[in-house]
Design brief:
homodimer; mainly alpha; Tetracycline Repressor, domain 2; 10 helices; DNA-binding
Amino acid sequence: MNKRNLQKQRIMRFFIDAAKEIIKTEGIKNITARRVGETAGYSYATIYNYFKDMNTLLTYCAFDFLEDCYEHVITFKDDKWDCKEQLIIYNIEFFKYFAENPEIFKLVYLEDLGKIPEELSKRPSISRLILDNLNESSKKGYLQKNSIDLLLELMGASIHGKLLFYLNRPNENQDLDFVLQVIEKEIEFLLNNNEVKNYE
Amino acid sequence: MNKRNLQKQRIMRFFIDAAKEIIKTEGIKNITARRVGETAGYSYATIYNYFKDMNTLLTYCAFDFLEDCYEHVITFKDDKWDCKEQLIIYNIEFFKYFAENPEIFKLVYLEDLGKIPEELSKRPSISRLILDNLNESSKKGYLQKNSIDLLLELMGASIHGKLLFYLNRPNENQDLDFVLQVIEKEIEFLLNNNEVKNYE
DNA sequence: TAATTTTATTAACATTGTTAAGTATATTAT
DNA sequence: ATAATATACTTAACAATGTTAATAAAATTA
């Protein structure tokens, strides 16, 4: 019976959207089953008819946010850019998305969500976007082909590490624009220094 | 009255050690005021005579663990190593410390500890250790002097990002030895590719 | 319309961090 | 040494939380 399923998906969506809204405004620490229920227009206990527990609901939110992030970044894809510039833009916009939504970062990357439902694991990923770019950059001679994997891993780890420091170290109080500049410089450093020497 | 203070420090230590033990064994999610009190040999309410709240106690634990981590890493300092090898060893041992103690990583880097008491902010830091090494590596010609800051930042962000993925992605189930190899390769990549050309 | 299944709510429970009130212990003054 | 006082600790209580069970309401089917 497919109608059943559609209706179920819709109600789930109410709860997910309610939870996302609360996370963005009140923060991950202040989300409660009761608040989600109220915002969604249901009793708090109804959540448990649709999600095993709060953690499961939060996991849905996390993957939803990841998709939102992808949508944000892909907005800045433009063929007018040279692929090195494009790579920098991807990284900067990715960083900005979470820098402007600290609570989303906390949910997606810092929260212990436990086992992830398989259905959620396969979605369009930014990692793929960067990989494609690195392949193109390699063709253009910005880096050696056998460095692609290493650079993908290195850039990914680095930008997440930076976000971790930027968002979880209230004392240090880093300036966003400065961090963005550092990101740009690092990427230029990584590509320039591994440029294929054509004259060899 | 200094005796008072000494006694106070001692009781605080009981609670801190109790909390650290619980975090290591039961995990950060399963620590409760009541358990800490019991393990320390006091009532749970006594904690509040020594710490403003649980978060403050956890913050003390976090900085204590950071010191333990430093102690662990410094163990592997040895003049027999070339400074590039030494740099790899520092990074690998740092990674291993948290890889073997996931709950410590969660507390130190992922937990939202709020404002950090000033007294805790100044401790021997691994970042300093790496910086010294990079300066030495630069003298030996493994990298250019004006790349030191960038590499320090890049390596630091990268290794924390890797830890984040390694410890918070139970589905992906990465192999520790493989990650350690990647770390080694990345450092070699970063130093080799920026070697100062002496013949220029 | 009656019977049944599905969906949602209310009430209750155990656990949590934290506080206030009270009790024991140690310190000081006489 | 004993009374007065300050310090250290505990017990009891509170409100908030996630979750479940019992119950009511609504929708579907017969």
